[in-house]
Write a structure and sequence with these properties.
Layout: E1 3-4, H1 5-14, E2 17-21, E3 25-32, E4 36-46, E5 54-55, H2 57-66, H3 72-80, H4 85-94
Antiparallel strand pairs: 1-5, 2-3, 3-4
């Protein structure tokens, strides 16, 4: 599985993540209702967007695991919409990664 970097950033932003740039990497962080910063964070690309346009299997595996998905298929469904933002929030609550009182 390979993913285009700009596609990934766009899809994650549409699902409640914000893309943050460190000095040489891009990270996504999950926000509840666009305001409440959570500890859910992953590296989602690095350095120069022109040079690293496509993410390989190893980085995709790292991303879906650090975002607490059970499989690549589940992560892919999340990006393509059958797995909705509400489903992701319920999954994180069930795995005790975010607190229920925010909802």
């Amino acid at each position: 599985m390979r993913l285009d970097l700009s596609y990934l950033h766009k899809k994650l932003e549409s699902k409640g993540f914000k893309i943050e740039k460190d000095k040489d990497h891009y990270y996504c962080r999950f926000y509840i209702n666009g305001e409440i910063k959570t500890k859910i964070r992953s590296k989602v690309g690095g350095y120069d967007k022109r040079k690293y346009k496509t993410l390989g299997d190893t980085l995709i595996t790292w991303i879906y695991r650090t975002l607490h998905f059970d499989s690549k298929t589940q992560f892919k469904e999340f990006l393509e919409c059958p797995f909705k933002l509400e489903d992701y929030q319920k999954m994180l609550i069930k795995k005790e990664q975010i607190d229920l009182r925010f909802f």
